[in-house]
Amino acid sequence: MMQALPVMVVDVPLLRWNMDTILRRCREWNISPVAVTKGCLADPVLIETLWKQGFRSFADANFKSLLSLRKRYGMTAQLQLIRLPMKRELKEIVETGIIPHLSHVEVLNEINELAGKKGKKAQVFLTVEGGDGREGFLPDELIDVAKFRNNWAHIKIIGMSLSLACLSGVLPDREVLYHLLTWRDELSRRMEEPSLLLSVGGSTFLPLWEQGHGIEGIHQIRLGEAWLLGTDISRKKCFSWLKQGAFTLQAEIVELRRKKVNDKEEKGFNAFGKVVESSSGSYRKRALLAVGAQDIDETQLYLQEENAKIIGVTSNYLVLDVEDCAHNYHPGEVMEFEAGYGTVMRAYLSPFMNRVYHY
Ligand SMILES: *Cc1c(COP(=O)(O)O)cnc(C)c1O
Fold first, then answer.
1. Same domain assignment for residues 142 and 286
2. Residue 139: is the preceding peptide bond cis (ω within 30°)?
3. Which has the higher per-residue pLDDT, 169 or 317?
4. pLDDT, mean over the chain
5. Are residues 272 and 189 in the same domain?
6. Partners of 87 in the beta sheet?
7. Which residues line ligand 1 (CB under 6 A)?
8. pTM as predicted
9. Which residue of 80, 82, 101 sits with most ligand 1 atoms within 8 Å of its CB, as the best mutation to test the pocket?
10. Of 64, 179, 209, 344, whose CB neighbour count within 10 A is largest?
């Protein structure tokens, strides 16, 4: 039977190689890796591969994904919720021993109360804002949190966490690390907890270790993009010691024609509110592929064929300009693209995307 299209082909041996390499490097650097699974919606095949290679620590932004991991692997898996929790999740977080990252004293109070009722000690991370302008206690607030510590008999603060480069693209450097270590030490002192862990993420922190030595005082790194794609999108770089190209999108050309875009002064936006640039005025060969905006992120798709250009995407089609390609494409032909993070995530979300694993 012919493979149904569109399809995301997953190279499992390549991913296994990335996982092994990360585990080995992290051992050398004396830091423990946490596999972030939100990029593939905690896909059972990929999680099982992580597990078999030796990962025992996982983090996800979606509580449901973590619950399914808990069900599958029991308490041997260490699970972190890396999106600040919603009120309605707190009870189950405590019951299932999932470690939340927190940034409000009120939430710590509530978790303490819930853990007390259950006779449990809840482990939590305090998250700190490091300049990316998203979640976390401000550094001054964080240090001040220590004054409440006696209220939290049922909480164990296991460490402090920081995320960078996810929103505004602030990149981690030695200066950021220096501040982080200073805040951690001050928090440790005030909390009278000498061994607070320091957890950083995501993959964009890895270059700090690439020179080949450990960084005193950082214990944990949370990685998603690195094991899935071998890339550091915040720096638009590939990790030379990891492999790229684990995910390949295949989609079929359903129309191929020379077309001319109407040359009008006033142009609107496409269905998704974006301006689509196209060379208007002249006839260009366009390929329409049967894959849509719900299945892919057209800005994170990479073609082998250098001279083809992605024009844009609608709900129905991915549109390419193939005028300058040496190859003579025809309708019915299947085109291949390397998928970046956004496309991998959509491919796992979309009910219309088929998935095939190569072992
Ligand atoms: C997504 C996320 C990560 C992982 O980031 P990658 O760039 O995929 O490695 C780490 N920490 C937090 C809090 C995240 O939200």
1. no
2. no
3. 317
4. 92
5. no
6. none
7. 36, 38-39, 61, 82, 163, 166, 201-203, 222-226
8. 0.93
9. 82
10. 344
Q: How far is the CA of 27 from the centre of ligand 1 (A)?
A: 20
Res. 241: pLDDT tops 80: yes
Q: Please check whether residue 239 lies inside any domain of the structure.
A: no
**278-306 pLDDT, tens per residue?**
666 789 999 999 999 999 999 999 998 88
Answer whether residue 240 is part of any domain.
no
Quote the CA–CA distance of 163 and 312 in Å, as a whole number. Answer: 31
Total domains, the chain: 2
Q: Measured in angstroms, how far is the CA atom of residue 341 from the centroid of ligand 1?
A: 12
pLDDT at 33: 98
Instruction: Express each pLDDT in 127-159 by its tens digit.
Output: 998 776 778 999 889 888 999 999 999 999 999
What whole-number distance in Å separates Cα of residue 175 and Cα of residue 159? 20
Say whether pLDDT at 36 is over 70: yes
Q: Looking at ligand 1, which residue's alpha carbon is closest to its atom 7?
A: 202
Which atom of ligand 1 lies at the shortest distance from residue 226's CA?
Answer: 9
Separation CA 90–CA 84 (nearest Å)? 10
Mutate to test the pocket of ligand 1, among 163, 228, 231 (most ligand atoms within 8 A of CB): 163
Report yes or no on 1 lying in a domain.
Answer: no
**How far apart (Å, rounded) are the C-alpha atoms in residues 16 and 194?**
36
Do 263 and 198 lie in a common domain?
Answer: no
Q: Going by C-beta distance under 8 Å and a sequence separation of 6 or more, which residues neighbour residue 71?
A: none
Domain assignment of residue 353, yes or no: yes
- Separation of CA 36 and ligand 1 centre (Å): 6
Asked whether residue 34 falls in the same domain as residue 101, the answer is yes
